[in-house]
Protein: Lon N-terminal domain-containing protein
Organism: marine metagenome
Amino acid sequence: MSGQNERYDSGSDTSAEHPISIPSEVPILPLRDTVLFPNSFIPLAVARESSVRLIEEAIASDALVGVFTQREAATEKPAQDDLYPIGTVTRIHKMLKLPDGSLRLIVQG
């Protein structure tokens, strides 16, 4: 990478008048100490290598992502049992990739 920050903007219409179709399976992004509610926007910092890959793949395929909060923030590789059972489907609206490889996102539940 050239040291420049990479940016992504979905350009999506966020209007509730345009419902989205939710696939039967979506990739899961575990969140630490954060809860995303439906129809809300939040900024996220993503640094875990597996999560960065998940986000990059979701952006490349314009996929929705499921977000679930981890029961324990210290868990590095959370399994399904390490996540709360209720999550939110989210769309990634903006992404900034920093020189250290971490991501900053704006997502909407």
Notes: The chain has one domain: 28-108. The domain at 28-108 is CATH 2.30.130.40 (Archaeosine Trna-guanine Transglycosylase; Chain: A, domain 4). DSSP finds one helix and six strands in the chain.
